[in-house]
Amino acid sequence: MTAFRSCLGSCLVGVGILALLALLMLVNSAYGGEAYCDACKGDSGWSGEKALDQIGNIDAQKTEVMPGLSTAQKNRVGVWKQSLAGFNKTDETEVSNSSQEDVPVSNNTESLAKKTEPRKIAEENASIVRSAKAKSMLAPIDEVNGSVVLLDISENATQHITGSIAIPYTKFLLNGTYVRSEAELAKMLSDAGISRDDPVVIYGECMPCGGGPAPATFVYWIMRSMGQENVRVLDGTVKDWAIAGNPTATETAILPAKTYTPQTNQNFSADYNYVKSGSAQIVDARTIEEFGAGSIPGAINIPYENVIINSKIRDETKLDRVFAFLDKNQPVVVYTNTGLKGSVVWFALILQGYDARLYSYENYLYNQAALGKADATNATA
């Protein structure tokens, strides 16, 4: 069977691998390459109004366009070709009614903090409403029973849901760097007592910071890519499980071995050619600082922190606001340096009904470098 992973080494020798498998170099330097635990921190201060000016703009963040005008004013003049006459009042109204959360309305940091903090606190304390579609991907704690295989992917966890099995997310990686081959993953799941037909609920946290769904959504992406249809992520943590009055244990269960037969699904992954084709919207899910240091031309920045609240995927109405500038009728490619953190945004996009694929910036840079060397060779030939 075609190898499931595609790492930098395989790219160097030019081995042809399916689009899905080419993506599986995503987790290069998973420990240091992506500080995915930043997802625990909450909002990054990202502004949808600022992001609008970045769509399709290969020079985004390089030069100041129409200096002296606010982002909303730039949009009015440059995008909608409207006069600024009488716009100040309109702008104030639109900002006050904006669906984007925590949009800066003042240059004064102290004043801004006072305006945004109450809204953040209100959201943190509010209950999250899930639709039936969301529950098909996020398993409510009160609906999980003994008929599912509970898979704890935490690293070095000391508390587990009673009856769950443990495969730390690091085990899905080879030497903590590359996603293992399809054959290796299938054997690991088989030995753990999981078949492709089993209903699976994945849970676990980014242990270094004590929370964050990135490892769980990443393992979800791997299993969906292997053809696992009946798989969900627990809508909460083991702590939430215990608070709800459910039993926990210090040890995990051991299930009889089964046979896991993968069926590769390429629809959740993008390769370099797909990204360059221009057929998809490109979302850079890294931090604002990383995006500013360099990104795929034409990408829009939606930091991964913006789909998370209290270590959970945000309410669907909030996600609609985060993704407000994306066209739901056009495919989306989301990437981070290796894809681990990007899986959270990919998961949220799928939940919202987008045709979304996961990619890595490292793969993009590798291919760009390879093309540059090829051009240089041709020029001297």
Short key terms for the protein model shown above:
alpha/beta, Oxidized Rhodanese, domain 1, 2 domains, 381 residues, five-stranded parallel β-sheet
What this model shows, in words?
The protein is α/β, with parallel strands linked by helices and 381 residues long. It folds into two domains: 8-46 and 268-375, Rhodanese-like domain (Oxidized Rhodanese, domain 1); 132-267, 3-Layer(aba) Sandwich (Oxidized Rhodanese, domain 1). It contains 15 helices and 15 strands. Strands 1-8-7-2-4 form a five-stranded parallel beta sheet, covered by helices on one side. The protein has a four-stranded parallel beta sheet with strand order 11-10-14-15. It has a two-stranded antiparallel ribbon with strand order 3-9. A hairpin with a 3-residue loop joins strand 5 and strand 6 (178-179). Helix 9 (214-225) packs across helix 14 (342-351). It is globular and about 65 Å long. The model is unreliable at 1-33, 35-44 and 86-107 (pLDDT under 50).
What number of structural domains do the residues give?
A: 2
The top-level CATH class of the largest domain is: Alpha Beta
Basic shape = globular
| Subunit organisation of the chains | single chain
Q: Tell me the distance between the termini.
A: 38 Å
User: Low-confidence spans: pLDDT under 50, at least 5 residues?
Assistant: 1-33, 35-44, 86-107
In brief, what are we looking at here?
This protein has 381 residues and is α/β, with parallel strands linked by helices. It contains 15 helices and 15 strands.
